[in-house]
Amino acid sequence: MKILTAAQIHQLDLYTQEAEHITSLALMERAAEAFVGWFTKHTSLQKEIWVFCGRGNNGGDGLAIACLLINRGYKVKPFIVKSGPLTSDCAANLSRLEKMVAVTSIVTEEDLVKIPANILIIDALLGSGLNREVTGVYAAIIDKINATENKVYAVDVPSGLYSDYPAKHAAIITADHTITFQMPKLMLFLSDHEAFTGAWHIVDIGLKMEGAADIVSDYSYTDAAVIHKMIRKRPVFSHKGTFGKVLLIAGSKGMMGAATLAAKSILRTGAGLVCVHIPGSGVDIVQTLIPEAILSIDPNKEVVTVLPDIDGYSAIGIGVGLGEHPYTADVLEELLVSSVDPLVIDASALNILASNPHWITHIPPNSILTPHPRELERLAGMKFQNSWERLHKAIEMAKKMQVIIVLKGAYTAVVMPTGVVHFNSTGNSGLATAGSGDVLTGIITSFLAQGYSPADAARLGVFAHGYAGDAAAEVKSKAGMIASDITEYLPMFFLDFEE
């Protein structure tokens, strides 16, 4: 699913109106119905609702929403900002609403009234097309709403939040829920904005998505529909070699758990064979916990000091639990220089790269790097001021290095060498647990070994990791789940997505 700018969404609105021979007012009514459909499923009929509407089309949405809620038996108190002229569709919906209920006009800050406790607030002041600083009466209303403890539901985007780039002003609604139309907006994926958006939900307003086919976007959202098209059927006539051989270089004394988590995830994701190269002290641990794995044993008992034979493997992953001993760093350098095919590089290997930036030129093109935000800072050699700066640095680095960067976090961003970003749709806060990243490395490496392109392996891996985490959370809870639970629930992904 493409993530479009406000201008591109307007273009899609116009395409839909022309293709279906409908007016913009009819499309506004459709959006209002979609909002109300979600809202009525998640709120009580007993609660009074205050709807704050601006002068533009977001306000028009709010007025149409108020009409629909009144028709469904809700007690609604609507407000309209009249500090200037209304758009034609907003004016049309105001005229319709005024025949049903009194609408309070707000012209100046003096017109603001005290907002009572224990009501619900619908924010339809300013929409996704906002491109100016919020001041005056709008800022005053936003401050008034934010000062309450009432639940706030934002229409499309929280008022004051730009949809395409960060807002620098302070006047932004802090919503509990954002009900966004048709597709997510870019700003919903940035951690800095969670306080404003709350939980967000997509509602379908029936835009004709074929109209977006020729619209170019550098951002997309990887949802279930995308994954269904991407995942391949496993052939009936097959053997373990059909599904790839993985070499995992991992582990150090005290960190063998990382190697076991990654290795088990490689197998749970469908690779035919995994060989784990580990220090000697980890043999009993790995052999006991993963009897299916083949071991390559380093002569050193505590750290990896020797690069094993890398010929004959479909994919190689390195870094989980590896440590940063100088001998281990030498192994990474040798691997980078020796490899032609893309690698999966994580954890300690990323930190070694950060300490030896001149090695970065040796990374095979289309390799997959999986940093969390702090690891990305080390690789970039800088501290990031906010999540927007972090994302754009990842884009810059992926293009310069010609690698895929999997920037881990909520809505993990898979950044391509072209600069295109795919945000993930699965996962939850339970994934923020020790070893979760090791599991992800195993999953991505497994998909790569099975013949998926590096781009598809990264997107599939991130989605499957989050999907398994969601399945685990249903049983274990978000707080109670641990990394090995993600691995154990990986089969749920394949049950639901394999043909």
UniProtKB/TrEMBL annotation:
Keywords carried by this UniProt record: ATP-binding, Isomerase, Kinase, Lyase, Metal-binding, Multifunctional enzyme, NAD, NADP, Nucleotide-binding, Potassium, Transferase
Chain ranges of the YjeF N-terminal domain: 9-213
Cofactor(s) it depends on: K(+); Mg(2+)
GO MF annotation: an example: NAD(P)HX epimerase activity
Source taxon at top rank: Bacteria
InterPro entries per record: Carbohydrate_kinase_pred_CS, CARKD, Nnr, Ribokinase-like, YjeF_N_dom, YjeF_N_dom_sf
Catalytic activity: (6S)-NADPHX + ADP = AMP + phosphate + NADPH + H(+); (6R)-NADPHX = (6S)-NADPHX; (6R)-NADHX = (6S)-NADHX; (6S)-NADHX + ADP = AMP + phosphate + NADH + H(+)
CDD domains given in the database record: YXKO-related
Residue numbers binding AMP: K408, G409, A410, Y411, T412, G437
Ribonucleoprotein among keywords: no
Residues bound to K(+): N58, D123, S159
Domain YjeF C-terminal stretches: 223-497
Residues the entry annotates as binding (6S)-NADPHX: 57-61, 127-133, 138, 156, 258, 321, 372, 438
The keyword rRNA processing is assigned to this record: no
One GO process term, biological-process aspect: nicotinamide nucleotide metabolic process
Function field: Bifunctional enzyme that catalyzes the epimerization of the S- and R-forms of NAD(P)HX and the dehydration of the S-form of NAD(P)HX at the expense of ADP, which is converted to AMP. This allows the repair of both epimers of NAD(P)HX, a damaged form of NAD(P)H that is a result of enzymatic or heat-dependent hydration. Catalyzes the dehydration of the S-form of NAD(P)HX at the expense of ADP, which is converted to AMP. Together with NAD(P)HX epimerase, which catalyzes the epimerization of the S- and R-forms, the enzyme allows the repair of both epimers of NAD(P)HX, a damaged form of NAD(P)H that is a result of enzymatic or heat-dependent hydration.
Subunit annotation: Homotetramer.
Family: Belongs to the NnrE/AIBP family.
Entry-linked HAMAP family: NADHX_dehydratase, NADHX_epimerase
Protein name: Bifunctional NAD(P)H-hydrate repair enzyme
Species for this entry: Cytophaga hutchinsonii (strain ATCC 33406 / DSM 1761 / CIP 103989 / NBRC 15051 / NCIMB 9469 / D465)
